[in-house]
Amino acid sequence: MSSPHSSALSLSLKQGPVTPGPEAISGVVRLNLPLVRASGINEVVVKLIGEVKTNVFVSQFGVDMNQLGTLDKPLIDLSQSLWTAQIPTNSRTDEISIPFAFDIPISPSLPPSFKLHHDDIGGSVTYTVHLLGIKSPPCSGTESTSLAWNRINIGRSNIQITRPITFVPLDLALSSSSSHSSLPSPPWSPLPLSPSAPPSETSSLYSYSTTSTLTPRPPKIYKTSLSLRPPYAFFSPPATIHASVVLPSLPSLPLNHPLSILITLQSISPPLPPSSSSHPEKFKFPKLPNGVDGFDLRLACCVKLSTNSANSSAGGGGGRERMVGWEIVAGREGDASGLEQVKGQSDVSGCGGLGDWKKNATLEISQPTWIPSSPPSPSSPSSPQTPSSPSSLSSSPTFHAPSSPPSPPEGQGQGLGHFTQKLTLSTTLTLPTTLPPSFSTRLLSTKYYIQLRVPFSGLNNNLLLNVGPLDVSSGIYPTSSMGATGAMGMGMGMGMMGMGARGGAFGFGDDNLAGRGVRELPPSYWDVTSTGTNPDPSGRQPAYLSS
């Protein structure tokens, strides 16, 4: 049987993700006056609170503990008093409805809704609407005594209903860059990655669709090199693979927009005798992939979090930095099983959270080219070539065209030479709409990486290039015709609402808790789900709140 005040208050909110702007959050509070009076409720207050919480499970000196982190003050804390017992009402009216709305400022300091529970770490950014039915103190007293009584008894005696809000910030990085760079204001139209290439619908260096004197920014180029030993020939001279990934030079990568990417591989064989120059079939290692299934592109999120512990920066303290799969932070954990597992499917799971990039890919492979080696100069002896950092960023490609032969890695000698071959893969990526944009707070921050993995034959001959760190923005721009959400916000809202049934912001629920440290926390630390009157008299919850 329900308690006497189970239907004294009810809360209804406008569904869907929330973006900043006037009346960003709106709803209706319904009061059953006879039950409100019978419950002793003296005031009805609605609040909007944004919080950041972190948790790290640590084991020190044989003692397991949870280190917690919260900000000194909420991200946002707004309150409205909707009704008091002193307000006169029609004696023949048993129920009244009171609308309310909250304005959310357009500020880069407000991060998106976010929730992560993975192994021994946890972090969340939550925005919650609280409806409070504040009861009168048992006896009259001073105002300070009344407030103190309410603070002590708010969770035990007062009626409280909470509703989580999915908050998505506007894309301020791209929309504000037009004032001081070559990027104009939205709406965006894709232009080719290379300024000299013809326009294409599948490329996306963003600009106006109309003709302008816009000078495109130079693209971002990430590169790495890898020395490979042929299978079962551990002491033979190595081969070399150079890899490069080119992305449009944008302040941030927007969600749900096509993004051009250009991947280049160049293989250099081990030293070969000059008799091999007219026999390209002797170029057997390393062989470049002959299709898109030889590439694994996967989106990953680097999460940094800390706690309020004094030794959080120490190795055993509360500071942590983890690389996790995109599916973990986007509420899609069932879609992919690992960051570096190669899959051949062309669906969302097999494409690593980057859209159907395999379907749109164009692959070009040049013919093997023979390059004779020059003998080393006596005045400048050759030194071993050191591979660049897997995540290095360069302003220009380091690949050598066949007309300008690259220096062989080692084993140079009179008459020896190398075969070289080049591969280019161009395609478009699309970041999923359920992905939380990157953000940074004192306790919790995120960046994204695109991981490129290309396996070659032989032991540990796997090329891995981490492209990043990358800033990701919502792709929702303030427009005068459609309001703050814009056209992209409508599509994004449908994706989030369909996914939100898994619980919490961006699809996280208690079933996602992993790691003993997170499980040992009381549910009230993380949960913001409904704890009071159901707003629907039929007993049904909205779809985005059902678990």
From TrEMBL:
<dbReference type="InterPro" id="IPR014752">
    <property type="entry name" value="Arrestin-like_C"/>
</dbReference>
<feature type="region of interest" description="Disordered">
    <location>
        <begin position="367"/>
        <end position="417"/>
    </location>
</feature>
<protein>
    <recommendedName>
        <fullName>Arrestin-like N-terminal domain-containing protein</fullName>
    </recommendedName>
</protein>
<feature type="compositionally biased region" description="Polar residues">
    <location>
        <begin position="527"/>
        <end position="536"/>
    </location>
</feature>
<feature type="compositionally biased region" description="Low complexity">
    <location>
        <begin position="382"/>
        <end position="402"/>
    </location>
</feature>
<feature type="region of interest" description="Disordered">
    <location>
        <begin position="525"/>
        <end position="547"/>
    </location>
</feature>
